[in-house]
Amino acid sequence: MARFSPGLGSENHLVTKLRDYGCKVATDEAMDHIHKLDCVILELPESQKLLPEPLGVQITTRIGDYEKRSYFLQRVTKNPYAPKNIYIELAPDLDLDKGGAFLVLVAITNFLSSSRFKEIKVVGVQIRADLTYEFQNIVAAATLQPPAAKTQSVEPGQLSGTIDWYDPMRRFGFIKTEGDVRYFFHRNDARPKFEAFLSSLEKEISSKDGNPLRVAFVNSGKAPGKKDYQAKDIYQIEIQ
């Protein structure tokens, strides 16, 4: 399997792949070292015309590195090359030659063509090894904290526990109750405010890390063929 090497190799490899697909791509040292742009995309494949606004691109394999994100945001807003910019985080085990690079092109095209991003000048996107991707507001994610728990007690008919483990890349995890019963949950099983927090996470969280997240939820039983119970309607609480 032809995977890339981390660091500069991944950036050069992806830029080469984008050119192979037919993108018109510009690079130079000032763009990279001063403004933190690995390249600027001037034209998409088969468009036969330059983009109305060039797109600045930063490429990294450092998933969820808030310091790197913040530095990029400080630099990119002053760059003279592109009014719109995208910060691309590549999963370390992503294979660019087997769909990974094409998925990056899909994400870039989506950012430039979708009406939801019309007024957005800087966006982040994670490209996962399973060939899925997700846009993220990297400005908000750098400062977002777990939502304040306004519910002081568990609602009638619900259980309580702590997040034992959650993987933001795979979007699922487990809740453990005081009786050490584990409940599987997916991010979509959370209430909107808590789901927004889970969506912002870049690294796994674990009860072993300290300051466990306390939650309440509904036991929805076991799905066919599954050994764990499943939690639904999850929200953060404070347990007195």
The main sheet orders its strands as 1-2-3-4-5-6
pLDDT < 50 stretches: 1-8
- State Rg: 21 Å
Approximate helicity band: 10-25%
N-to-C CA distance: 53 Å
Total separate domains: 2
Strand tally: 12
Overall form: elongated
Total number of helices: 6
- Sequence of secondary-structure elements: HEHEEHEHEEHEEEHEEE
The class by helix and strand makeup works out as alpha+beta
Mean pLDDT: 84
- Biggest sheet features: 6 strands, mixed
How much beta, percentage-wise?
A: 25-35%
Features:
alpha+beta, OB fold (Dihydrolipoamide Acetyltransferase, E2P), 29% strand, single chain, disordered N terminus, six-stranded mixed sheet, 240 residues, 12 strands, 2 domains, five-stranded mixed barrel
Task: Describe the structure in your own words.
The protein has 240 residues and is an alpha+beta fold. It folds into two domains: 8-141, no CATH class; 159-236, Nucleic acid-binding proteins (OB fold (Dihydrolipoamide Acetyltransferase, E2P)). The chain has six helices and twelve strands. It has helices at 8-21, 29-33, 66-76, 100-113, 138-141, 192-200; strands at residues 24-26, 39-43, 55-60, 84-90, 122-127, 133-136, 159-167, 172-176, 182-186, 205-206, 214-222, 229-236. Strands 1-2-3-4-5-6 form a six-stranded mixed sheet, sandwiched between helices. The protein has a five-stranded mixed barrel with strand order 7-8-9-12-11. β8 and β9 (182-186) form a beta hairpin. The radius of gyration is 21 Å and the shape is elongated. The relative contact order is 0.12.
